[in-house]
Design goal:
globular; four-stranded antiparallel sheet; 95 residues; Alpha-Beta Plaits; 3 helices
Length: 95
């Protein structure tokens, strides 16, 4: 069963949010190669919701070191992160 991580992030400033967004969009696909789906949704000037979906919990677990590294590198730009994880019941893509 697919497994997901949802990060709801509050940035310290809009400029920091822009910087993190640009970096994540440019590097996340190569940084999280096992992810089946990656999203970065800017929910406001100071907030974003990032969701990553993996084929299973083992692939999700293998991505943890990369997430920790990225969060540590961005900690001075982030006011708060609420991270949740769980089994994916639906991942519908309408193309």
């Amino acid at each position: 069963m697919s497994y997901a991580r949802i990060n709801n992030i509050t940035f310290i400033s809009e400029e920091f949010g822009d910087k993190i967004q640009a970096n994540y969009c440019a590097t996340a696909p190569s940084g999280f190669p096992e992810a089946e789906i990656l999203t970065f949704v800017r929910t406001g000037p100071l907030t974003a919701s990032l969701t990553s979906i993996y084929p299973d919990k083992a692939a999700y677990d293998r991505s943890a070191d990369e997430r920790k590294k990225r969060m540590a590198g961005n900690q001075e730009m982030i006011a708060n992160v609420d991270m949740q994880e769980g089994d994916v019941a639906l991942a519908h893509i309408n193309k």
